[in-house]
Amino acid sequence: MEANGKQTVFVVVQLTGGNDFMNTLIPYGNDIYYDSRPVIRIPQEEILPLDDYLGFNPNFAPVKELYDEGSVAIVQGVGYPNSSRSHFRGMDIWHTSEPDRIGTEGWLGQVVAQMDPLKENPLTCVNIGRGLPRAMAKQGVPITSVGDLDNYGVMTGISGEERRRQALDIFQKMYGQAIGSGPVREYVARTGLDVLKGADILKKAPEMYTSDVEYASNPIAQSLRDAARVHLADFGTRIIYTQHGGYDTHANEVPNHPRLLTELSGAIMDFFQDIRDHNASDNVVMLVFTEFGRRIRDNGSGCDHGAGGGSFIIGDRVNGGLYAEYPSLDIDKQTDGDMAHTYDFRGLYTTLLEEWMGVEGAPIVGGHYEKLPIFAKD
Questions:
Q1: What gap in Å lies between CA 7 and CA 5, rounded to an integer?
Q2: Greatest CA separation found in the chain?
Q3: Mean pLDDT in residue range 259-277
Q4: Is the CB of residue 318 less than 8 Å from the CB of residue 67?
Q5: Which of 372, 361, 317, 306 is nearest to 339 (CA)?
Q6: Secondary structure class of 279 (helix, strand, coil)
Q7: What angle separates helix 253-277 from helix 219-232, to the nearest 10 degrees?
Q8: Alpha carbons 78 and 340: distance in angstroms, whole number
Q9: Are 112 and 241 in contact (CB under 8 A)?
Q10: Geometric angle at alpha carbon 245, from 274 and 310, rounded to 5°
């Protein structure tokens, strides 16, 4: 699919651990928020209001700036029925779009198979980070994974190969128990050598890149800098994936969550400023997601695993605003104090697949789900 005559590019940022959506997009107009969170609540005078009910965490100010210009769509209450509070299972569901059984293929791996059916470009999909996210796993589909683009570029052939073998070994250890060692070994055998093919090409990206944007030194900022460099190098990359960890805020949420949101929002703003400066932003959309939200009540130090959360779709072609419904805070109507999901994540995937990537959604998400009007039309 094309946007303004260029192939669309999809950037995914995974918030690993279960981001506290209620402290990211805050229902400051509801007294239940303050009553339920005596320890971790954000003072009302510090919140960045979107309307009379909802407002952003003050540490999310850069994303608020993008929201105000109309470039951020917020999908509220996103999740799935019978939410799993397991990190592994929850993320597995998002990666495979299989809530009812253990899936064997990643949703993005299936997309790559359609985008590059002849496997001509090993850089159609690039992961910035260690290992291979299960979202990208599909037998015979080559995915290039790089932890650090600068170091990747100066590796010798031997060390580069060894690093990639380690990445595949991590993948095998992570997923072997879930879907069986046989399918994982077969996937690694068919895909392992393919992931080496992008090495020599990717080495050129840092040499081709100049920018006035000064990214922070934290991991997500550096990962999104690498994402920008891959995109701007024009290697034909259609999907870029990366992660930001640390969102499992059972304890010490007061110091840690604001820091995470500061790092994330600053990195997102720098990424879009960078590609805008290079006139390369109009065909890029970013998804920011997490495996589940967290409970309504705090636990005296943080908050525990929940259900309904929230996702962000960001880009120049996005119809910014609020989508779906913010979950009810009436604890008596919730299951074990969770924020219930109000919108199925498979509808979000269908929207992204069909309206941005030009791929039929139903075969990948396993059915037909409500789409959202989050993309501007020509």
A1: 7
A2: 60
A3: 98
A4: no
A5: 306
A6: coil
A7: 20
A8: 9
A9: no
A10: 80
pLDDT value of position 8: 97
Where is pLDDT greater, at 169 or 75?
75
Query: Which residue in 42, 218, 244, 22 sits closest to 129, CA to CA?
Result: 244
Helices (H), the chain: 31-36, 61-68, 87-96, 107-115, 149-154, 157-179, 181-191, 199-202, 205-208, 219-232, 253-277, 345-352, 362-365
Tokens of residue 75, six digits = 């999908």
Report how many domains make up the chain: 1
Structure tokens at 153: 């570029």
Residue 53 lies in a domain: yes
Structure tokens belonging to residue 344? 């199925």
**What does DSSP assign to residue 36?**
H
Judge whether 223 and 128 are in contact, CB under 8 Å. yes
* Percent of the chain whose predicted confidence (pLDDT) is above 70: 85
Contact 56, 24 (CB under 8 A): yes
**What integer best gives the mean pLDDT of the chain?**
87
Range of the domain at 227: 2-365
How far CA 370 is from CA of 84, 342, 345, in Å, comes to 22, 12, 10
Classify residue 38 by its DSSP letter.
Answer: T
Token duo for residue 297: 């009540």
Number of H helices, E strands in the chain: 13, 14
26-45 mean pLDDT: 96
Q: Measured between alpha carbons, how far is 220 from 244 in angstroms, rounded to an integer?
A: 6
Instruction: Give the whole-angstrom CA distance, residue 100 versus residue 350.
Output: 18
What own/partner pairs with CB < 8 Å and gap ≥ 24 does 173-181 have?
174/131, 174/134, 175/134, 175/137, 178/88, 178/92, 178/102, 179/102, 179/103, 179/104
CATH of the domain at 58: 3.40.720
Q: Is residue 351 part of a domain?
A: yes
Banded model confidence at residue 194, pLDDT cuts 50, 70, 90: low
Domain presence at residue 376: no
Length of the chain in residues, anyone? Answer: 378
Task: Please answer whether residues 242 and 227 qualify as being in contact, where contact means their C-beta atoms are separated by less than 8 angstroms.
Answer: yes
pLDDT over 90, % of the chain? 63
Given the structure tokens 């992008």, which residue do they identify? 198
Structure tokens at 228: 């920008």
Q: Is residue 128 part of a domain?
A: yes
